[in-house]
Amino acid sequence: MKRTSRTGNALLALLLLGAGACAKKEQLVIFATARSQGRLWAREEPAAGGKLTGGFAVFKKLYDEEKRPKLAVDLGNWFSVTPEGWLTRGRSTMACLNAVPYSAAAAGIEDLTLAPAELQKLAEASAIPLLASNLYLKNNKKPGFLLSSVVAQAGGRKIGFFSAIISSPSKPNRPKYLAHYKLEKETYEMEKAVKALRDGGAQVIVMLLGINPKEKAAPEFFRNLLAKGPRIDLVITDEPSIKKPFRVGRTWVAGAGLEMAAAARFTLDLDPAGRMTDLDWDRLPLLAAKYGEDKGVLDIIAGYRKAAAAHFSKKVGFLTEALPLRENGVSPAADFASDCMKRWSRSNAAILSLSEPAAGFSSGTVTVGSLYSAFPLDSSIVFVKIRGDDLERALGALQPGEISVSGLKLFLKDGVLDRVESDGGPLVPAKVYHLAVPDSLVGTRENSLLSSAMEFSNSRRYLREVVGWCFSRQKAYGRPEGGRIVKAEGN
């Protein structure tokens, strides 16, 4: 009887031990940020009651406080909205990613405004893997300085990451040609990346999915995308409309923290084989008062702030009158820029999209900083040779209310282009005219101006540089008699 009792007690102890082991979940944490766009440090946030919020120094503190096995990932768009970002072409953000350190980062579509040589320099400055799974060069080769996928380790588990950039959620799964690159079909690249990660021993597969900030991806987009692709455990996206996680089959879809104002924390439950079984998600505002700020990261940021302040305070020129972004139905800032393009390029005419200038200029001193604020896009000047009849047809395909012209006068009738004149009179059909336009105006294959041109070449000079050249020589802008776009009476 004693032997039976001892055996029963031992069995009970083993059962209790096993139950305790089963009750203890294995967990792994992934932090995710996106669209920092050059926002490096904390700032007062109205949405947070004016509290000092955001920045990599706060995130570093939050990250270091996490005691469970952890990783950090970023979804790109590294430099587009701050002077520091523009000046360093994203290197300031990359230095902060390195300092945390992150485990992987994915290039965003705004980062693809960098030419391949510039993007390569950024990748070489990175101590972490940079991903762009569906990105190709124009010659259909993969950029050698970027990775399609990577396997990271945390807590002895292998987590596989790959990325995809979506140019237009409304036109999914199509190749897209950009100025310097080609985006391949996302589902094709998903299959390749997931297979490579499985072959590399990844136990959990995570997709970093970047959406063009100029468009919106509804939940239905994610459902359709994942229905066609391979099994993925977690999709982390920078789509702002995704407020809370949802599931598509066995795949979780959830949003990253945006603009370095917040970080997303994903807590993954894993089974004994390391497979993901459940997900918990938090959006954590990066409150400096709550987490503090890491001194090492602050020192890195301080160096970039000092260099940027010195650079952007430099004087470019002087204006005797203000150049508003909009005034009485026209854009003086755009008209000044189109005049500058024509003058600098010594061309017959210039055409500029009104989407190029983001702000106007006050009268008085013009600085490098105000120049960047007014012309934030990295558009460069393209020289175009085109016959008069082709130019008139191409202008007819553009929206007159969305462009500024110099050296040309557009006459509208019932809101439609009726005729075009140059400074010398009506356009001569067979005459070859020399134009200056930003590459953003001819950056698509469907563009009528580019398809009608006899010849074109990119100057590789930024529009803002050309405008800055004009500011050093010109203190006001021209107002042609009758205006540049003339509407017939009754229009």
CATH class of the largest domain: Alpha Beta
Number-wise, the strands total: 29
* Gyration radius, in Å: 28 Å
Helix fraction, binned, reads 25-40%
Largest sheet: 7 strands, mixed
* CATH H-tier superfamily of the largest domain: Metallo-dependent phosphatases
Distance between the termini: 107 Å
CATH architecture of the largest domain: 4-Layer Sandwich
Q: Helix- and strand-based class?
A: alpha/beta
Determine the mean pLDDT.
Answer: 90
Low-confidence stretches: 1-7, 11-23
CATH topology of the largest domain: Purple Acid Phosphatase, chain A, domain 2
Number of contiguous helices: 14
Shape: globular
Walk me through this protein's architecture:
The structure is a single chain. The chain is of the alpha/beta class. The chain folds into 2 domains: 24-309, Purple Acid Phosphatase, chain A, domain 2; 313-487, 5'-nucleotidase,  domain 2 (Alpha-Beta Complex), CATH 3.90.780. It is 30% helix and 30% strand. It has 14 helices and 29 strands. Strands 1, 4, 5, 6, 16, 17 and 18 form a 7-stranded mixed β-sheet that branches. A 6-stranded mixed β-sheet has the order 8-9-12-13-15-14. A hairpin with a 2-residue loop joins β8 and β9. α4 runs antiparallel to α9 (295-312) and α10 (332-345) crosses α14 (463-471). The longest helix has 22 residues, at 2-23. Residues 1-7 and 11-23 have low confidence and may be disordered.
